[in-house]
Amino acid sequence: MTCEGCANAVKRVLSKLGSDVSSVHTDVDKNIVTVTSTLPEKTILETLQKTSKPVKVIH
Asked: Given this model, what pLDDT does residue 24 score?
């Protein structure tokens, strides 16, 4: 993510997962998205990959 537009795209694509995603926090400066969800990690990753941005998990 390089701008708020990118951050909004991430939030928009994750919002399509509905109420299973309880929170999404983006930090453009650190290039990090924090997601709280009951969904499997794989589902979140596959959804984020739809933005065509590089995605990796940090625990």
From this structure: 97
Q: For the chain, how big is the Rg over CA atoms in Å?
A: 10
DSSP 3-state assignment of 53? coil
Tokens of 46: 């596959």
* Spatial contact of 28 and 7, defined as CB atoms under 8 Å apart: yes
Separation CA 30–CA 20 (nearest Å): 25
Evaluate whether 1 touches 53 at the Cβ level (below 8 Å).
Answer: yes
2: tokens are 């390089």
Domains and CATH numbers, the chain: 4-49 (3.30.70.100)
**Mean of pLDDT over the chain:** 94
Looking at the whole model, is its pTM more than 0.90?
A: no
Helix (H) or strand (E) holding 32: strand 32-37
